[in-house]
Amino acid sequence: MSGRSQCLSYAGCNFLRQRLVLSTLSGRPLKVRKIRAKEQDPGLRDFEASFIRLIDKVTNGSRIEINQTGTTLYYQPGLLYGGSLEHDCSPSRSIGYYLESLLCLAPFMKHPLKIVLRGVTNDQVDPSVDVLKATALPLLKKFGIDGESLEIKINRRGMPPKGGGEILFACPVKKVLQPIQFTDPGKIKRIRGTAYSVRVSPQMANRMVESARSILNKFLPDIYIYTDHMKGVNSGKSPGFGLCLVAETINGTILSAELASNPQGQGAAVLPEELGQNCAKLLLEEVYRGGCVDSTNQSLALLLMTLGQQDVSKVLLGPLSPYTIEFLRHLRSFFQIMFKIETKTPEEEHKGGEKVLMTCVGIGFSNLSKTIR
Asked: What is 270-281 written as a DSSP string?
């Protein structure tokens, strides 16, 4: 254990979520210094403090020390506990910011996690709840994390700046994860999507659907975009609209794209027609990048491969995002695991941009805190 319990030290505020998540899973303490030390307003932001509080809620026995100015953080992880929880997320970031990390931690709790998150459900910065529901849940199922209790349910929508949305996330616990061989994305068979509008005319959603279909119909006929107009208390506190598109292939690969309107009082007003067209183009861009996991979930897939049984896992990804590249470096520091990375040129794959084949042997991580019934 002496090797495992060495404290890892980092500087700067970037990738704070990655570091806290990996520290919790590996059991290694973490120290982060110089968090925005040179800025006018130094230290942790409210959304980061809210994230640390969330980590504290899902674990038992964590020790968190933050200095007076908030520029240094020391975190000694406890056991992942889970259970039924509630958390009010900071409205300056969307619920997706918190949910992405919960998806990494949830399978390894002591009790199945059932958490209600409140805040902004869709914004322009983080992956929205719709996208995570459509892409991350099928990915978890591939690793053997499934069952009736795996769900993300949107009770209320909340748009920035005021939020007011509410979602329920439930996930069962697993003792071990199964390795995956996921190297052939397959051809796209259908496109699904959701056009949502809150506190604006319900016609907005239909206008987005029309303009997105005008581009996508050239490529395949099986397109269905649901319109979701929430009223009254379910529509949150701010007006807005947006579109989330998901392309599914014959082999079960799911690629996604999304766009949301500018928050009230910020930036120029966006036309729903333009938003629909731009979102369709973003989806085509994502299809061009290709791979078996879309760019939002690359790090989740790599983490679950790392924590799998001591067996070979392979996954074909599109070009790696900067976030994923940093995540690979962190995986090496926390778990001493290296991936074999092979680039595949478009000629070999016959389609789209350059692909990367990632191979690793899992560390055989087993969920020690899971209660045996």
From this structure: PPHHHHHHHHHH
